Amino acid sequence: MKSIITIGRQFGSGGREIGEKLAGKLGIPYYDGKLITRAAKESGFCEELIETHDERPTNSFLFNLVMDTYSFGHNAAGLVDMPISQKVFLAQYNTIKQIAKEGPCVIVGRCADYALADNPDMISVFISADMEYRVKRIMEKRQLTETKATDLIVRQDKQRQSYYNYYSSQKWGMCKTYDLSVNSGILGIDGTVEYIRKFVELKEQQ
Predict the structure, then answer these.
(1) Closest CA to 39 of 47, 48, 29
(2) pTM of the model
(3) Residue 18, Cα to own-chain centre: how many angstroms?
(4) How far apart, in whole angstroms, are the C-alpha atoms of residue 132 and residue 10?
(5) What would be the CATH architecture of the domain defined by 4-201?
(6) How far, in Å, CA of 79 to CA of 135, rounded?
(7) Average pLDDT by consecutive 10-residue portion of the chain (206 residues)?
(8) CA gap 50, 37 in Å, rounded
(9) What angle do CA 127, 7, 68 make, to 5 degrees?
């Protein structure tokens, strides 16, 4: 097996659980929280700092001025004055590219599909679900009222969308952005895992 599976997800759709189960079935490493730990170790930032800025959007446009240079491994003078949120993104960006060099794995969130856009072994997946399904899951998992669960979902989705749209050249959640889009509200967690697994197998056979 050689596939590197990246997972984007709507909040409450079960993306993290699906990614972890998929990695287990495929027998490959899973990266979510571990990516933060590794990025911290390799960049010199403390984990708490990376967690604070993890998948958080930024309003600064300085990133656009230095990203192309930095992506190709050159030093950019602008990095010195770059906002910490963008330094954290670059730390995760570089860690994702390094992880991909080490072999097949599942990576959740953090614009991993964008970081690995030039990798022929990357399979990008987006997991969605209708609001009713997601609200019910978040109410049960976090012991929240329907109103609070709904507000949290809307806020988290907006944050993820802003982050992804800012750092990548694509649109978060749009089917044409990904190789595969799956509705976990229809298939369920285990059904979605199996659906993605079969897709990966078919892709590997090509």
Answers:
(1) 47
(2) 0.83
(3) 13
(4) 13
(5) 3-Layer(aba) Sandwich (3.40)
(6) 40
(7) 96 97 97 76 70 57 40 41 74 91 95 95 98 98 97 95 88 95 97 98 92
(8) 9
(9) 130
